[in-house]
Amino acid sequence: MTETLFPAEYLEARARYRAFMEQHVYPNEAAIGREDDAAMALLEDLRARARDEGLWAPHVPSEAGGTGLGFLYYACLNEEIGRSTYAQLVFGCQAPDAGNAEILHLFGTGEQKERFLRPLVAGEVRSFFSMTEPEVSGSDPTLLRTRATRDGDEWVIDGHKWFSSGADGAAFAIVFAISDPEAEPHRRGSMILVPVDTPGVDVVRAVPVMGHSGRGWSTHCEVRYTGARVPVTNTLGGEGDAFMLAQKRLGPGRIHHVMRWLGQMQRAFGLMCRYANEREAFGGPLADKQTVQNWVADSAAEIQACRLLTMDAARKIDEGSDARVEVSLLKFYAARALCDVIDRAIQVHGARGLTDETPLAVMAMMARGARIYDGPDEVHRMVVARRILRSFRDGEGWQFS
């Protein structure tokens, strides 16, 4: 089946990533997970190795400084890269930088690309996407309150953000701010590139998520903007384009997440099946118990469904479609499958699955957020249902393609 999904050259590239993961990433996961100074130094060493081996930045094409060949290619690679939480950072394709790089590549000016995109893709700096606010619902960006007020040739930005992932130690933000509150709702916002060393930018704290505060890339920060001034030339796209750019960024970002989840699901599935065959209870291996067999069968079906949905959406994006329905459908289905597969794997392992003797506990902690970030499941289900029902109201019906 894999051979029919991907061209031979994609599979050859994936084999190179698999070999690197087995040699350099998996053996170092525990050390990296300590997030101390030694872990940071180790990460930089691994990132340098990945660059030297031509495995760097597979999410963007060569003209943007990467090694990517499109969404389907990247999906193929992520069945390996996604297996480890830290591998995306090792290969320079980590969120949120990957999505930020894509919109800078598509919509940035020459000056913006030189100042922000080039060092970002090269791995010299990190960035964050500053959109979500604590005072309003994150699922409805028309409610955002952060303001960008024009003062001559400058924007003056005031606002309060949180869950700005990776803000600790980042060099710049892409800030979603309301620049024209009198415009129609989806033309009120602009996206603005804001260096973190700008006076008035304060990365307040790393917000603990499921008990984990993180360090650097793994943080989710509260950020305040108080009279922060940047040139109007730092506007990404045009004034009023924030909602359009958010869709352009978050759509690919969502499928990037799902690509990584495929790797997480498959790793958890492998751990579950191996342990079920090894562990004995009540007169035989767990693999002989019907409940465990049901978990294995259900997980296999869900993983393969997610794979096929992902590759279909990736192919359509490569062909020029925004694949909005496909991406939304995939996002909520895969997020639920991810949580279910990991949970079953933990259950098979029993108390061991809750410890650091396997990667499952960390995987479960991170997986729960999948049903919330980049749009909660309920919003994506609504998007899919509304689009399909509208097509029936218009007399077109719905064609599965």
Biggest sheet, strands in spatial order? Answer: 1-4-5-8
Measured by DSSP, the beta-strand proportion falls in 5-15%
Structural class: alpha+beta
- Sheet with the most strands, sense and barrel status: 4 strands, mixed
Stretches where pLDDT is under 50 for at least 5 consecutive residues are: none
Oligomer: single chain
Describe the global form.
Answer: globular
Counted by DSSP, the helix tally is: 13
What is the share of helical residues?
40-55%
Count of individual beta strands: 10
Element string (H = helix, E = strand): HHHHHHHHEEEEEEEEHEEHHHH
Averaged pLDDT:
95
**What is the CA-CA span between the terminal residues?**
19 Å
Rg, Cα atoms, Å: 22 Å
Describe this structure in words.
The chain has 401 residues and is an alpha+beta fold. 50% of the residues lie in helices and 15% in strands. It is built from 13 helices and 10 strands. The strands form 3 sheets. The chain has a 4-stranded mixed β-sheet with strand order 1-4-5-8, covered by helices on one side. Strands 2-3-7-6 form a 4-stranded antiparallel β-sheet, with no helix packed on it. A hairpin with a 2-residue loop joins strand 9 and strand 10. Helix 9 packs antiparallel against helix 10 (290-318) and helix 9 (242-278) packs parallel to helix 11. The longest helix is centred in the middle third of the chain and has 37 residues, at 242-278. The model has no long low-confidence stretch (mean pLDDT 95).
Please name the defining characteristics of this protein.
401 residues, 13 helices, 15% strand, alpha+beta, four-stranded mixed β-sheet, four-stranded antiparallel β-sheet
